[in-house]
Amino acid sequence: MLKISSSFDGGSISVLAADHPENIQVRLRPDNASPFKQWFYFRVQGAAYCPCRMDFGDVTDSAYPDGWEDYQAVASYDRQNWFRVPTTFENGCLNIEHTPLANSIYYAYFEPYSYEQHLNLLGEAQSSGLCQIEDLGSTSEGRDINLLTIGNQTASDVKIWVIARQHPGETMASWLMEGFLSRLLDHQDASARALLDVATVYVVPHMNPDGAVHGNLRSNAQGANLNREWENPTLERSPEVYVVREKMHEIGVDLFLDIHGDEALPYVFVAGTEGVPNYSPRIAALESLFKNAFRAACPDFQDEVGYPKDAPNTANLTLATNYVGNTFQCLAFTLEMPFKDNLNLPDDDYGWNGQRSLRMGECLLHPLLVAARAIDDER
């Protein structure tokens, strides 16, 4: 008997009809408290060796309709190994056509990263002996907002902040964090040791656990898009941003990265703070230094295609990167990875995936080290 379900961590789909494998009618489900929709993650049972056609209907009312162009969904039998499956987008309608080779298979918008994986990552980080975990507060549904502090925490240290998963459907951000923390906490890694000689690194690996568990694309359990809350967060609507921002003001920030995924652009790129009032030649020079070092460390990164740069004094200060960069007059970037594939180095079988995001996290140590040394030399 054919069955479709999504009642699990991160699951999201609405089922209209599942009477026949070749005529499965599903629809994108909006976030639990906001109209954003694009993320999906569901399980199909009872269709082994049957050609399946999953019709999502008209998806032009999704959050990012351009994201469906040249997009291929991912699938897994064991939720460990994910691969791309044939997906078409024609006349506004999205369809997945695939023949499962077992009775249980999962389909998703991108390779998921569960809340349990996040908790395991915290445990592994603490076990390194180099990391302190601090509780900053709770989400509206009572989940922990944790800060990882890695380094000597001396007054002269460069203060680096890295946050991820403000948008819960951008799971590649969590995969990047896993790679970043694994390398940073490796006692034998020379780049990690050199970075921690000049910097203390403050990491919030999961900004939006409520939204992730709900299977949301962009918002928390209260319907707030956290990356539009930084200018005036509240404990009622956006406690995640409120407590992290308070800690930043207590400690200070010299360098900031906010990790995201972009639905439409098939590239890895960064967005800086050109449009904030406190942008300066000093920050421009640090931006160039960081990007050149990043290109040298990772061929997946490029700086030719990205978001249009804001004109001077026109930046939206509700965004994390703009708020932090302007407030602390520091180097600040939003790092974007694709949901599709990276056209710089395409991979027909996997596209951009969790492992490539993880490797990107490992590569981040080099540009952070180069930038941190430059900031340290200024003092």
Which labels suit this protein?
alpha+beta, 379 residues, 17 strands, 5-stranded antiparallel β-sheet, single chain
Provide structural commentary.
It contains 9 helices and 17 strands. The protein is globular. The chain is of the alpha+beta class and 379 residues long. The mean pLDDT is 98.
Question: What quaternary form is this?
Answer: single chain
Structural class by helix and strand composition: alpha+beta
User: Low-confidence stretches at least 5 residues in length (pLDDT < 50)?
Assistant: none
C-alpha end-to-end distance: 68 Å
Shape label:
globular
Tally of alpha and pi helices: 9
Kindly state the mean pLDDT as a whole number? 98
Order of helices and strands: EEEEEEEEEEHEEEHHEHHEEHHEHH
Helix content: 25-40%
Query: How can the largest sheet be summarized?
Result: 7 strands, mixed
Number of strands: 17
Question: In terms of topology, how is this protein built?
Answer:
Layout: E1 3-5, E2 14-17, E3 24-27, E4 41-45, E5 52-58, E6 74-76, E7 83-84, E8 87-90, E9 93-98, E10 104-108, H1 115-127, E11 131-138, E12 144-150, E13 158-164, H2 172-184, H3 190-198, E14 199-204, H4 209-214, H5 239-251, E15 255-262, E16 269-271, H6 281-297, H7 320-327, E17 331-338, H8 354-363, H9 365-378
Parallel strand pairs: 3-5, 13-14, 13-15, 15-17
Antiparallel strand pairs: 1-4, 2-3, 4-10, 5-9, 6-7, 6-10, 8-9, 11-12, 12-14, 16-17
Helix pairs in contact: 2-8, 3-9, 6-9
